[in-house]
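[Meeting: bench + compute handoff]

Bench side (C.D.) handed over the final construct sequence. Compute side (W.E.) agreed to return the predicted structure before the next meeting so the bench team could plan truncations. Sequence as handed over:
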Amino acid sequence: MTDDGKVTDDGNETQGDLDSSSGFDGRAVIVTGGTRGIGFGVAEAFLAAGADVLVCGRSAPGALPEAGGRTAVFTGADVRDPAAARELVATAVRRFGRLDVLVNNAGGSPDADAATVSPRFVEKVVQLNLLAPFYVGQAANLVMREQPQGGAIINIGSVSAHTPQPGTAAYTAAKAGLLALTRALALEWGPLVRVNHITVGPVAPGGAVQAAIVPLGRLALPRDVAAACLYLAGPLAGYVSGADLAVHGGGEPPGRYLARD
């Protein structure tokens, strides 16, 4: 199971004076894991809305997100390392002079049998899906809280945090922790910094059977998640913090219904 899906296809004065039509001109955004899948789509959406965007990954991609003749900036970073997380934020501030939005998107895990999985595997899954967002969030908060307009942090989660599936024990635990972390940080870092969570369902491409059980009849696309990020980062969500926004097409029916004849 992975957070990355590849497809081709003011009320709150601390959040600035943007209105619903002004986009993100002059705003600076970090998207971790923004070189593919959901993160790539999120980065493109913020670029299209006028923001300056920094994306990161452990290796340079073949292509960077771009929109409207503008291209994201790339920096290499392993966000599981606290020092690298701090340097990522520092790089954005040096480049853009500010930081308004952090999208903690990097994450994922292959399926693994909980009975036999190694401690090293579990540690890496928890580091990537829980500790890394904490580390980058800490560094981002230090910058955002010094800005009169504050900032917004968005953590990309998973339906696994709510409905575990076989083979995802470590991933499920980490994502459940991310949801709880989001709520805890929203309590501690307001009013200048808003922290929210998006629960993402299965992302295309995927099998027809998997898509058929989603009430809206299809799997999520990166643009679906990107639209939610634009909302949570923008002025229309100026009084939204500590929230969990479900972007899963209505979820999956409980197993007892799927088992019916």
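W.E. noted at the follow-up: The CA atoms of residues 107 and 128 lie 6 Å apart. C.D. will use this when planning the next construct.
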